[in-house]
Structure prediction request, 567 residues.
Amino acid sequence: MSENKPASELTGESKTPTNFIHSIIEEDIRNGKNDGRVHTRFPPEPNGYLHIGHAKSICLNFGTALKYNGKCNLRFDDTNPVKEDVEYVDSIRYDVHWLGFDWEGREFYASDYFPQIYQFAENLILKGKAYVCDLSAEQIAEQKGTPTRPGQESPFRNRSVEENLDLFRRMKAGEFAEGSRVLRAKIDMTSPNMHMRDPLLYRIIHTEHHRTGNQWCIYPMYDFAHGQSDSIEGITHSICTLEFEVHRPLYDWCIRELEIFAPQQIEFARLNMTYTVMSKRKLLELVKNNFVSGWDDPRMPTISGLRRRGFTPGSLRNFSDLVGVAKRENVIDVGLLEFCVREDLNKTANRVMGVINPVKLIITNFPEGQVEEMNAVNNPEDPEAGTRKVNFTRELYIERDDFMEDPPSKFFRLAPGREVRLKYAYIIKCESVVKDPVTGEITEIHCTHDPETLSGRANSNRKVKGTLHWVSAQFALQAEIRLYDRLFLSESPEDVPEGEDYKTNLNPDSLKVIKGYVESSVAGTQALDKFQFERLGYFCTDTDSKPDHLVFNRTVALKDSWAKAKN
RNA sequence: UGACCUAUGGUGUAACUGGCAACACGUCUGAUUCUGGAUCAGAAGAGUCUAGGUUCGACCCCUAGUAGGUCAACCA
Prediction:
């Protein structure tokens, strides 16, 4: 549980720059609040897959606990059986764990607290602070008013405690139809805060719950379950996103009226990223309409998608640290995410040679049938990674982009009459090219090599402008390469003219599947293995990959200053 | 025509809570390199939304604006 650091070093050390939440916590500790105890929680609703925004929240909550020697629970906010499913519970547990965090057995469910929460509701009724309302959903909405106009009181608002208790118990007993009655808090229909206008506490839902089955037919609303769950678990700092800011008065009201342990809710701004959408609804839509292959499509900003794309837990944790925590709206440059994977993979991914857009290269003065084993370094950033042998033969493949017939002056690669080094092998000189007579496309590049320039030899260090990667035409393995690009063309996909929606910004070329070659050393690769294809980028073995049909996903390309120079 | 929140280089966050703005990404130079990667050295780029005020002194405090966001689901 540590691979590649951050989330504040996964230890208690405070290396991270301070954020306002940590400032609050530190002051609470100074003041001896909660006896200096720090207890957070990550509270997903199991109704979808987690995305990078959740990753930030996970890192914040678990990271905060780690930093202050506290605890962090994993709690499922499962109060709406019609939307939730165990499939999501499982994926969430897997993702949190994969990210590198451990809830140490403190896996809780709001549904575990249903009996307790039900009791809370009765207590409120007994105090005259809650009532059963028979109005329809439409009527309640109507009487709620608007943010600028006060609401009206329900005709059922002043029922007696006895009647309320009786009705509520019968709701629980299943005597009433779905939607016929609800339990509401009695607060203030004229409050400028809509959430304080007699909010719903309980509603009737005759749907089987993924954990409690048919035990209940009334379910607490978020506002009557979340804070209560926090309280029951002794959560000291209940960290959530900004849209819950307006819920805080209600959160506090419930805690106060119930006279139970009071956690402190603190809100921060959710993560937004360029070239992507982040709402569960939109992500679900992309999946449902097959714009992507599933929740774990490597183009998705989901944790499962990023994992399949080749991201490492450490890179995501580091990203979460770098984006910071604050209350202002923000849009993070997706380039920062890419920086984080590159930084991580540069240090950990073994190098391998692969040719993505092949053109044949023939070394005319290299004996036919001869095989020479070249020594290759697995990772120049990590001596421990060792070396390997790569077969060199007369016929090779190199990258089509590495050759130009009529190159500009800034082009350092192969061209007629020019010399380059083949990595780990020889310096070669281009003598001629063979073209397809009809298309004019180059089919073969003919070169000669200088045997004295074999890598590692004493006099091999002649200066050449460029070094190319290559694979042996005879030994290379064919592979399917999936080149991913951003899913959306626009930096802000939701920014669209009237009448259109974010889907018009979908990038039609976000996935290109091509055939390429990789050196034979990768033969036994397993799903999610990570490599750097030299000079190209970081790739990982896809879950679809089989020994006789290798599939690699491009996680991210290497920085390419030549591409930039070309414009 | 309400309430609440926010406002610092292109982006994201800092600034010991009053002492003339720092870090990261990005950008641009140069060095180095058997990855046009990495690494190393350096540069440009904001005077902190606006207008007042308090103060010897304000990004930090006050007032009024402006701009953006959130809130009217028997969702969370």
Notes: The radius of gyration of chain A is 31 Å. Residues 11-15 of chain A have pLDDT under 50 and may be disordered. The first strand of chain A starts at residue 39 and ends at 42. The CA atoms of residues 331 and 543 of chain A lie 31 Å apart.
